[in-house]
Amino acid sequence: MLKKYFFQDNEIGTDEAGRGCLAGPVTAAAIILPENFTNPILNDSKKLSEYNRFLLKPIITESAISFGVAHIEPSVIDDINILNASILAMHKAIGQLETNSTFIIVDGNKFKPYKNFTHECIIKGDSKFMSIAAASVLAKTYRDELMNTLHLEFPMYNWKQNKGYPTKEHREAIRKYGLTKYHRKSFRQLPEQLKLKI
Question: Which residues bind a divalent metal cation (predicted)?
């Protein structure tokens, strides 16, 4: 159960998913929830089962005053690094909102100013505030759906199960098949290699 429901009225909550992956985009969501919104199972997406995340997704999207989701592709991650790509994804998600609100709460401790908005970084905010938790669920579920689609193109990496994270199975597939256009070339793909020849 979340410790607090809201930071203030009409706040924009934002969070990302996929920062630690070897393949696929980093995905962010931004959301404004109504003041009376509550849900007994909503929490940090990492603390929820896949079943509960996908159970919550339509509840969150249908209840939201406004929400946005943005993917930043691996080539951009390689160009600007994962932290900047994560913040860019959050900015793009915020840019999709239909709102007059100009106050953002962000999970974590790093963010860059967005337009003339004010923001507050909150460590473990996705386990404290409804809007950040909802954003974390949307970012995770939208990214998971995309990785399921990419799995169909490259089933040998089993992204349907590991979603691009550095699992033993994923790394074995990289050893066997090499890298795809969806892999992050700037990431250390294999423990014994600092850089792969591509």
Answer: 15-16, 107
Amino acid in the structure at residue 95: G
* 107 assigned binding-site residue: yes
3 domain-assigned: no
Whole-angstrom distance, CA of residue 136 vs CA of residue 126: 7
Helices (H), 21-178: 50-63, 74-80, 82-95, 130-153, 159-162, 168-177
Residue 172 known to bind ligand: no
Question: What predicted TM-score, i.e. pTM, was given to this entire model?
Answer: 0.92
User: Is 15 labelled a binding residue?
Assistant: yes
With respect to residue 62, please indicate whether it lies within any of the assigned structural domains: yes
Q: What is the pLDDT of residues 66-94, one digit of tens each?
A: 999 999 999 999 999 999 999 999 999 99
Q: Is residue 184 part of a domain?
A: no
